[in-house]
Amino acid sequence: MTPTFPEALRAAEEKLSRSLGRPVRVAIHRRATPELIDAIESIDRAMFREELRYTRKEIEADATKSDYTAITAETDAVMAVSYGYADEGGYMLDTLATRVEGKGVGPALATLTVIYAAERGYRVLTLYTEEEDERGRRLREWYGRSLGFRYLRTETGKGDVMALELTPGVVDGLFSRYILAHP
């Protein structure tokens, strides 16, 4: 059964706290404060090559879009962020980035974004990604295999467009796999 978003948020905190061995706070942000923008910029600089990083003005512009929502995971500081907004025909997962890899943080935040979008009545979640990043990780394949996104097309200058149908089965499956399951 699909949890409410607040229930999923608390379950994600518990899961990530177990996985990381220290308390993790997962928070939702409906507006981008200067501190949140600083955190997004810092994670962008650490995790993305220069041509993929957003400028402060781009992050601020995204934050003015309809239904903008950022979800962060933090211990002493923000270690991961997922943010999105309403887009043509659905909800756009614009950014998913984490400083901590291999502990389930990215998939948990992606799942929370899926639950949020589904609860808000969106039927499709879209994103742009690369086929492969500079570290050789096959991102398009990961989004497809791990989260169930399907490849739609490649857009010049933007990347591979992928979409996920937000059915109850998809939402429940991701919640069970990435939030309820023990690390």
Topology of this structure?
Elements: H1 5-20, E1 25-29, H2 34-47, H3 56-62, E2 69-74, E3 78-87, E4 90-98, H4 105-119, E5 124-129, H5 139-147, E6 150-155, E7 159-165, H6 168-180
Parallel strand pairs: 4-5
Antiparallel strand pairs: 1-2, 2-3, 3-4, 5-7, 6-7
Helix pairs in contact: 1-4, 1-6, 4-6
Q: How far is it from the N-terminal to the C-terminal residue, by CA?
A: 21 Å
- Please report the total strand number as a whole number: 7
Enumerate the strands of the largest sheet in spatial order, edge to edge or round the barrel.
Answer: 1-2-3-4-5-7-6
Rg is 15 Å
Structural class call reads alpha+beta
pLDDT averaged residue by residue: 90
Provide the β-strand percentage band.
25-35%
